[in-house]
Structure to design on (220 residues):
């Protein structure tokens, strides 16, 4: 696993840029022109090994980093899927998100589990960023269009991990993603959501209602 380019920034430099930098004000091209293979290595390391670092971040920094890493600001979720990165490695990047949900998001969302939101309009900035990951025009397209079928199963396994979390933000985030995938994978979406509701992972009526909407693809 690579930790530094030959003459460029280190992994630690990259972490600081992702989470501490107001990206709309100070754009450093070194972090926007990373080679896809290096980027895939760094994403796996970040998503699967940096639990203590991320849970210690102020909520505003973590939210900022989520929007940057998964959104169009960086295009990282598209870049790691470049043909120079083999398909198995691409799948590892996606699957490493299970750790992100279970060991980072599920610890910090809902204000540390103390205050679950009463609706999507009630999300704070951090919970809102978790909710929107699958609507940031980055990764979800891999399961919607032909050509990247090798990522469909990893994506659904990550969404299942989100539904297994205890926090509302994670659960709704997973349901949100499934709702967008419903037109493309209706049977698989229905099975996952039915399993979620039958196990009564939540007792909040609005989450159950949102699950019903997601099952029909009725999410925004």
């Amino acid at each position: 696993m690579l930790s530094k380019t030959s003459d460029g920034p280190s992994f630690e430099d990259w972490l600081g840029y992702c989470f501490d930098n107001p990206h709309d004000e100070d754009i450093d091209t070194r972090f926007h022109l990373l080679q896809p293979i290096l980027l895939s290595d760094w994403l796996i390391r970040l998503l699967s090994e940096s639990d203590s670092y991320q849970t210690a971040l102020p909520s505003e920094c973590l939210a900022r980093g989520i929007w940057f890493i998964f959104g169009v600001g960086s295009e990282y979720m598209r870049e790691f899927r470049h043909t120079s990165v083999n398909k198995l490695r691409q799948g590892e990047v996606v699957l490493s998100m299970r750790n992100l949900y279970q060991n980072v998001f599920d610890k910090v969302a809902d204000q540390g589990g103390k205050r679950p939101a009463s609706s999507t309009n009630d999300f704070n900035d951090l919970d809102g960023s978790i909710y929107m990951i699958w609507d940031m025009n980055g990764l979800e397209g891999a399961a919607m269009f032909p050509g990247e079928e090798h990522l469909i199963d990893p994506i659904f396994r990550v969404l299942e991990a989100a539904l297994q979390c205890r926090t509302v933000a994670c659960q709704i985030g997973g349901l949100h993603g499934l709702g967008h995938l419903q037109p493309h994978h209706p049977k698989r979406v229905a099975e996952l959501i039915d399993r979620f509701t039958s196990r009564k992972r939540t007792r909040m009526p609005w989450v159950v209602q949102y699950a019903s909407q997601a099952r029909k693809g009725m999410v925004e």
